């Protein structure tokens, strides 16, 4: 299962409005035995590049026992990141320095959902 954006996905993402603001919802399921700690390493790396494009972590929290969910639908953590534009997100994920640390995210996760959201 893919846990990082792909070229085709980024192209479609940008086609929806490259200059519009977007908040990315990350639903995260960690690899057992060390995935959460590895993701914390990724977050430290991510923050160094997020600020360069004007992104801001809105919320990062660990999941607890779900109130409403089918078995297997619970998530280990939720991350919300606000970007000034879709292009800013794409610029960050294409940055070679950022790319050097994406292995931390890949190694930390067994499953992830990265859902763009827009204000209503």
UniProtKB/TrEMBL annotation:
Record domain DUF1330: where: 37-109
Superkingdom assignment: Bacteria
InterPro entries: Dimeric_a/b-barrel (IPR011008), DUF1330 (IPR010753)
One family name in Pfam for this protein: DUF1330
Coiled coil segments of this chain: none
Classification via PANTHER family: DUF1330 DOMAIN-CONTAINING PROTEIN, PTHR40257
Name of the protein in its database record: DUF1330 domain-containing protein
Species the sequence originates in: Actinomycetospora atypica
């Amino acid at each position: 299962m893919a846990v990082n954006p792909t070229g085709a996905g980024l192209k479609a993402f940008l086609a929806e409005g490259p200059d519009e603001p977007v908040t990315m919802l990350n639903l995260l399921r960690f690899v057992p035995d060390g995935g959460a700690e590895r993701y914390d390493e990724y977050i430290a790396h991510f923050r160094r590049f997020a600020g360069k494009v004007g992104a801001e972590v809105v919320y990062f929290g660990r999941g607890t026992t779900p109130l409403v969910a089918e078995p297997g639908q619970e998530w280990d953590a939720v991350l919300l990141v606000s970007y000034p534009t879709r292009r800013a997100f794409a610029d960050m994920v294409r940055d070679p320095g950022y790319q050097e640390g994406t292995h931390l995210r890949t190694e930390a996760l067994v499953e992830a959902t990265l859902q763009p959201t827009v204000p209503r």
